[in-house]
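Quick look at the format.
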Amino acid sequence: MSRGTYSRATCYALLLASCSLAALGLSTGIATATDGDDGLFLIPGSLIVSSSTYDKTQGAVAGLKVGSTLPDTATKTTKAVSGNNYVTVWNNASVDGSFGVTSPITLLNVNPFTDHVMRSLAVPTNQVVTSFSSKSELGLHFVEDRFGARLVFVAYAGPGVGALDVSNSDAVAGQDPTNPVTFAFGDNYAFHRTIVSTDPFGRFAYTPTTAYGGNNGRSALLGPNGLYYAVGNANNGNAATFGPSNGTSPDVTETTGLEVVDPIDGASSGVAIPTGNSAEVDPLLQFTFVVGKPDKPGKDDNFRGITEFDGALFFTKGSGSNGIDTVYTVPSLPTLANASTTTIKVVPGFPTDSAKATGGNFTPFAVFFANDTTMYVTDEGTGNTTDAGQHAGLEKWSLVGGTWQLDYVLTKGLIGTVDANLTGNDGPYPNVTSIGLRNLTGIVNFNRTVTLWATTSTSSASGDNGADPNKVVRIIDDLDAKTMTPRVMEETFKTVIGPTYGTVYRGVAFVD
């Protein structure tokens, strides 16, 4: 099956017909994602999932033991409270606020109807890795336009598997002398947050950036204008003001949030970064509220999920105690030249109150547009009663008179679901409870339903819930419904993949 042979809806219909007939034991003669695609990884009609599996045998984590010296926010003398056991290693976050372990990235090609993993693609660990417990990383975006078909995500260049505290390291050597990771490891312990693209045959290209120093790049997409747009967070130190006076180079308070990046797409993640190759959109975005202490520079635009729809960008903030947890937009695609003068706005109808005031009761993560008046938003949840009852799960919003209004939240088969008996070589993992959703993708079907896939967020007794074995789930919604009709009330989430001991699932993308 060559690219462009079928439209999205046609691929969906053919696969659905194939699976239905297969269930009856009949041969269909229809080419599905498993037939005739030798060498092709981004197969039309398939679901791509990004995942990572913990590996304690490589790098610094291989020698980690109770009592090992860990980096800390003030000294180099903090002792590890756990060795490298998968179940307990995350307890080290209690004594090292920057604790994390890098791990390999694997892309999975999944038949979206049989839930069968057809192919897997290992991302070269000598080029890029992810931080295993960083739950907001590895968002996926697929695009096919005049520039070709590509799958895009963000990772770390250079540290290899098993490195410690990389997610809070600088992006550029010597970037922030106030960063505790810099203090512990030295100025050269810095790793470019790198945009990675994959072509249909699984060949990788790399665009390193200087952005997100002290924190993580989370998601990126390729715009129809040929520029990358990335979201993430920055600043792990004590930079307290905007501009060069904070002593960071490049300024970590202006290499965060929404970034415009000119693609390099080199064969190696070690390719040189041209001067001025990226720029932050609305770099002086800063919310200061009367209640509580002033917000920390660089944290108000602590963005994660991002999507492009009809020439506009939509992205979310749903974590941290700074700024506003809500859905944001810029109405037209910024360029490197106008990024600094482009204004970020809250999408009309979404919350505009302080994250401090709401206490984390609205935690949006990712956005999917079914059409120009129907938007789905995942809410990660916090596990508290207010959030679980009002927002956590899959929200459906409708545009009415220029303002978005919340129709309903889908939670059946998701919120409160407990996965137990997760046991592996390092012993039993604590019971894991689903409390919401993170990354999201979907497809509009010919029968006016919408199939949506998402990764779950979790709660457990682990020292870092980002390390919990989570799941990929699917739900089918009635596109035209605006209220909880009897049909909608019966809609339920089904598990596609997981949970898998020692593995996390991060991003999802449907291949058109």
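Next, a different chain entirely:
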Amino acid sequence: MRKTKIWSLILFVSLVSISIVCSASLNTSTSLYDLLNSQKTLVIGYFDKASSDVYDKYDKLWKPVVQTVVYKSLVCLWAITNPFDITVVDTAKDNLRKSILEEYISLDGKIKRYELWLLSDYTWLSLDILAFSGKYTPLINQFQTNQLLAISWLIQSVRDYTNQNTQLINTISNNITKIESVNNWYETLIQKINILQNWSFSWQSDFIKNLNTSKNLSINILDSNLQSQQDKILKRYKKLTWLNLLLSENKQNLLNIFSQDTENQINGIFSWYYDYIKLTQIKSDFLNLKKDFYSWNNLICSNIISKYNSTTEKLLLNTQSKIDWLISWLNISISSISSWWLSDLFKQSALKNIKNFYSKRLNSDLQLFRAFTYQNIDSLFNNLLNIPVNNIITWQIVPTINLNLPQWFLFTKPFNLNEKSDSIKILQQLLLQIWLYSWSINWIYDSITKNATYLFQLKNWLLIWYENRQATRWWIWPATRNLLNKLITNN
């Protein structure tokens, strides 16, 4: 009995001792957490202030410089080869913040291990926590100093180079200003036209739908009739190897012209909005300018120096004048847009005129196709003995292609009907430059673009042994992609 009391007393003393140690440990770890969080708040606050100061200096000092035409001129002259990039600041700031937070997590883990093992000596841990701010304060100062020095150095470089080359900088700056002015005015013009078009579609949706339906129906009818004629002729004259290629080319040309003419007819109905013919001229002039001085909506600096001449100056002035005149007309139209309304009689008359146009053109284009067909049949028959019927013939297409593409660009996949992408825009530009496509660049793999692709395949004998499999037509499979990519990389 006495032994039992003794052991009970020992157990009680032990529990009390453990409780006292745990309580002391808990109080100590709590104070360590408080110390750590205060250090973190101090360091992060200082870091945020330094970062804010860098961004503030960037916005006030360097950003206005970048937006000037003088800076763009210096970039064109390669006087600025390593411009200050805010993304570099972002990366440096993010890396430093990540390092600060990793240090905080590491110290937090040390406190947790202290709690787990009930260590009695925490002096070393307190010293580590107190060293937190001492470690990162100089790193934050260095980050701030480096970025501010980079901004100051570039600003001084811009000033020095500008002062030393004033006349040259002024000439290039004036050229850039004139080019960008026309570009901005053209975008304004298109925005105003879109306002009118959106009004047309919202208030005259049924009428617009009927016009587009009749247009698409007529194109499909012409396509079907031409293809039917082509199939009959090819079936009759199987030995004329080149006939399929010639007929496909002529068919595509007729479809392209027909599509453009039908679009003009529809736009002509709304000619009171603006002068559509003048808009077409402006678009043509602007695209010529853009081809020479822009690539992917970025200025081509080398061309501004080498290609800008008196002809460019005249074209810019004429285009600007035409745009100003048309915008004035559009402003009047937009201001009175609520008073416009198309009567049912006008709509019926317009649709009737459009259908009459389609009917005449369908007949005339079919006659042109037939005349072209029999003219070439006679010519091919006269040279039949010189045609290598069973040999694979490869046409060498070596046009001068200037698409201003990134070096990494390649066609990597086929396109589906009505798919829209930047790669399809490039395909259309390429086919346009090798005279297989003459429709607008609309980024869409539509029927016209498909037919032009099919024509490219025929012209280069990419469908040998597969011509009867219609599923392979227009499909940009590996052989077609390889030749397209070869045309791009060889130029």
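The beta strands are 294-295, 298-299.

See the schema section for token definitions.
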